[in-house]
Amino acid sequence: MTTGHRITVEESDRHVRAVHGGQVLAESDRALVLKETGCPDRYYIPPEDVRLDLLTPSGTHTHCPFKGTASYWSLPDAADLVWAYPEPKPDVAEIKDHLCFYEVEVR
Q: What sequence ranges are listed for the domain DUF427 (predicted)?
């Protein structure tokens, strides 16, 4: 990792919900929280706790030198709302196939 850049992944003890347009897209007590230098905390939710039936894979892919290549999913009215790392870098292997939303409610 680059000097001064740090990423940690740990089990969250918080309840996490992702809601869009009044529809619950995900709800979990098993999320992982990823903390990365210079970024907001991100909650990665296991796929079993996500309404995958509401999401459509998009063609978008982005690359992070610390996490790997992300794949994205969309809703009809929200492009690339959700992402995951199917093959994450070894330092963040725990987030494999967990889904992350730009905005979540954390309790």
A: 16-103
